[in-house]
Amino acid sequence: MGGVRVLVGTRKGAFVLTADGTRRFWDVSGPHFAGWEIYHVAGSPADPNRIWASQSSSWFGQVIQRSDDGGRTWSSVGNEFAYDGDPGTHLWYDGTPHPWEFARVWHLEPSRTDPDAVYAGVEDAALFHSRDGGRSWQEFPGLRASGAAWQPGAGGMCLHTILVDPTNPARLYVAISAAGAFKSDDAGKSWRPINRGLVSEQIPNPTAEVGHCVHRLAMHPARPDVLFMQKHWDVMRSDDAGESWREVSGNLPSDFGFPIDVHAHEPDTIYVVPIKSDGEHFPPDGKLRVFRSRTGGNEWEPLTKGLPQRDCYVNVLRDALAVDALDPCGVYFGTTGGQVYASADAGESWAPIVRDLPAVLSVEVQTLP
Amino acid sequence: MIRVALPAPLRTHARIDGEVLLDVPPPVTWRAILDALEARHPALRGAIREHGSGRRRAFVRFFACRQDVSHEPPDAPLPDAIASGAEPFVILGAMAGG
């Protein structure tokens, strides 16, 4: 029986939660990097002992931490994220040009095959990668070809989702808050927006090529041409590798939300956490419910056993939902109230691993041999 | 020797106990101190001043002999008491919050 390691990033440090395959008894270590914001912690599929963490502070900037022993010890690696050449400007909130400025790393996506290789999605939105274990970082500037027209949303202009097609590593997808989804078929050299079918009534042209507030993308590795999206409003699906999208919100109580993920063994089983609205970032009716669709969207069922069903007003952020690869599939999510919930039965029942962490920014899971 | 006092988050991050003692040739300026500090502790690169531009990070402050020298030019000589080690060169995270 294998085990799992849940990697949790919070507003005030990182935590590592470990359990055996029963997922009933948990060891909690942390806070690592206490006091710093940890936007994301991610393990390398190629070497589970290698873990990356994005550590940042408004005072002291960006740090990238790397562990080579499964999170027991850490070393800081390179932290210079220099845009390629003169980065120019994007639009500011008032519509005026604003210089591109690096703020932080939102998301780290380790290579499936090379422990020294990792992508980094940053704010202001750009994609970087390192191939030397994090010592140096290089940008993919082609992504920002249309960037002069991008404008940040309230949460900042962040690149928060990075997906690599496991059958074709030259095919990459990213998503950028308030810009949309983008695709590359040449390993990141050139990019184009893939937002056909998205409708956002909150922007001047609801069907614009860019400007949509995509909150999260998800893919099952066995079916990489099918993509799922949680948009600001609307849950969307693409069956043609992002070339077109259709709405699959169906009977959800709200189609606003942040995270979306796919069951490890069932490519048509997906999970979302509906949030009441963009102005009220908490669950509808004070009930914390994960919704599952076993039909790839449209038909959704609430999963509530073990979750608070009254007076609950937390949020679940875009990077704070993840699945393990055990059977039955484990599902995990963290809340802005500091709870990390786990389900060892694909969402049928839930229990908190921890209840009182700082606000959770991200949750990732490593399935260990 | 120059004495440098760092804020707790940076001491923890760079695994530093107490003050840092640096040999900095004259003229002693905040740029020269930070060059020597970052050479000794590479983990601090980018944490006090920005990569590339070398600008002081917005929420970091420098104090010398109880005076805020954050806005002094980076190559302005610091007081003799800093150069002699009688007083520490203090790096602070600006107070913020409620």
Describe this structure in words.
- The complex is a heterodimer of chains A (369) and B (98).
- Chain A is mostly beta strands and 369 residues long.
- Chain A has a single domain, classed as Methylamine Dehydrogenase, Chain H (7 Propeller).
- In chain A, 0% of the residues lie in helices and 41% in strands.
- Chain A is built from no helices and 30 strands.
- In chain A, the strands form eight sheets. Chain A has a four-stranded antiparallel beta sheet with strand order 3-2-1-30, with no helix packed on it. In chain A, strands 4-5-6-7 form a four-stranded antiparallel beta sheet, with no helix packed on it.
- In chain A, β10 and β11 (118-123) form a beta hairpin.
- In chain A, 53% of the residues are buried.
- Chain B is of the alpha+beta class and 98 residues long.
- Chain B has one domain: Ubiquitin-like (UB roll), CATH 3.10.20.
- Helix content of chain B is 23%, strand content 19%.
- The mean pLDDT of chain B is 95.
- The chains are: A mainly beta (369), B alpha+beta (98).
- Chain A binds chain B through residues 33-36, 57-63, 76, 79-82, and chain B through 7, 9-10, 12-13, 43, 45-48, 50-52, 57, 59-60, 93-94, 96.
Nutshell version of this structure?
The complex is a heterodimer of chains A (369) and B (98). Chain A has 369 residues and is mainly beta. Chain A has no helices and 30 strands.
Write the layout of secondary structure elements.
The complex is a heterodimer of chains A (369) and B (98).
Chain A: E1 3-10, E2 13-20, E3 27-32, E4 37-43, E5 51-57, E6 61-67, E7 75-76, E8 89-91, E9 97-99, E10 104-110, E11 118-123, E12 126-130, E13 138-139, E14 159-164, E15 172-176, E16 180-184, E17 192-193, E18 214-219, E19 227-231, E20 235-238, E21 246-247, E22 256-262, E23 270-275, E24 290-293, E25 301-303, E26 321-323, E27 331-334, E28 340-343, E29 351-354, E30 360-368
Antiparallel strand pairs in A: 1-2, 1-30, 2-3, 4-5, 5-6, 6-7, 8-9, 10-11, 11-12, 12-13, 14-15, 15-16, 16-17, 18-19, 19-20, 20-21, 22-23, 23-24, 24-25, 26-27, 27-28, 28-29
Chain B: E1 2-5, H1 8-14, E2 20-22, H2 30-40, E3 60-64, E4 67-68, H3 80-84, E5 89-93
